[in-house]
Amino acid sequence: MPNKKYKIAVIQLNLNDVAENNLKKCLSWVRDAASQGAEVISLPELYSSHYFCQSEDVDNFSIAEPLYSTSFIAFSTLAKELGVVIIVPFFEKRMAGIYHNSAYIIDTDGSEAGLYRKMHIPDDPHFYEKFYFTPGDLGFKTIPTKKGKIGTLICWDQWYPEAARLTALQGAEVLFYPTAIGWHPGEKDEYGENQHGAWMSVMKGHAVANGVYVAAANRIGLEKYLPDTDGIQFWGSSFIAGPQGEILAQASHDKEEILIAEVDLDLQENVRQNWPFFRDRRIDAFGDITKRAID
Q1: In the predicted model, is pLDDT for residue 1 greater than 60?
Q2: pLDDT in tens, 159-182
Q3: pLDDT, tens digit, for every residue of 65-84?
Q4: Rounded distance, CA 49 to CA 46, Å?
Q5: Over pLDDT 70: what percentage of the chain?
Q6: Which residues form the CN hydrolase domain (predicted)?
Q7: What is this structure's pTM?
Q8: So what's the pLDDT on residue 3?
Q9: Spatial CA neighbour of 8 closest among 163, 165, 148, 102
Q10: With helix as H, strand as E and coil as C, how does the chain read?
């Protein structure tokens, strides 16, 4: 029988350090989350390093790791020891010249329940991800785990209702969004409140429109490693929302934190019965959604 209730967690951290230190830190925080009762635990995007996409520099490709190497071995061992599911976002080296922004979904026995490769890749000032990452080719997927059915998207994916919908239609109970998003310090006073508000609103909208739980795991801290730049001030504010968009847990802008909330599948079913958005979808009229523009 599937679990009717289980606890999920997102971990908000400062990750502006070298890979070895970030790995040790994240292993410790996952252990802490499990000790507090969390059964499915997500780290932030690209957990093992500072956010290197602030510049286009081929030396940064050395940070990438092949599948099933350092990160998988460490977190697989921990997942099996603790009996938890862990979402581990990492910089994947698929082969020479092909790299992905990816996430393992590691099951309670330490096996790989699934792999997700980020589908939408941004290219904005100091978020130069197209230089590093090939767009994902595994599609949008719901991953069955021993705790529940998990959908994992990554950061820029969070702005696309199609990604949330296609994942939810496969049975996802929770949409996890490992994230690295922040303010340009020089723009924060003028645009910061609206930028942060939009980020919250769009993901709460995914929760409502799909009747799912949504969990966003962001990083914190000013990462200013390039000379003559202001860096990026990651805004934290990680959160977990319920299937009506209600905020179940919310982190600060500047503290390392663990957020935990309960997924209640009976509540989710009740919400969907009363707000039957899936029932009333006019799939016969949606053909044009696959077009770039309707000219």
Answers
A1: no
A2: 999 999 999 999 999 999 999 999
A3: 999 999 999 999 999 999 99
A4: 6
A5: 99
A6: 6-265
A7: 0.97
A8: 76
A9: 148
A10: CCCCEEEEEEEEECCCCCHHHHHHHHHHHHHHHHHCCCCEEECCCCCCCCCHHHCCCHHHHHHCECCCCHHHHHHHHHHHHHCCEEEEEEEEEEECCEEEEEEEEECCCCCEEEEEECCCCCCECCECHHHCCCCCCCCCCEEECCCCEEEECCHHHHHCHHHHHHHHCCCCCEEEEECCCEECCCCHHHHHHHHHHHHHHHHHHHHHHHCCEEEEECEEEEECCCCCCCCEEEECCCEEECCCCCEEEECCCCCCEEEEEEEEHHHHHHHHHHCCCCCCCCHHHCHHHHCCCCC
Task: Check if the beta carbon of residue 40 is closer than 8 Å to that of residue 147.
Answer: yes
In the numeric block, which tokens belong to residue 205? 């909208």
Q: What is the pLDDT of residues 238-250, one digit of tens each?
A: 999 999 999 999 9
Amino acid at 71: S
Lookup result for tokens 């082969």: 95
Q: 28-62 pLDDT, tens per residue?
A: 999 999 999 999 999 999 999 999 999 999 999 99
- Establish how many alpha carbons lie within 13 A of residue 72's alpha carbon, considering only the half-sphere containing its beta carbon: 17
Beta bridge partners of 151: 142, 175
In which residue are the tokens 């309707």 written? 294
- Give me the active site residues, please: 45, 118, 155
Compute the distance between CA of residue 147 and CA of residue 208 in angstroms, rounded to an integer.
23
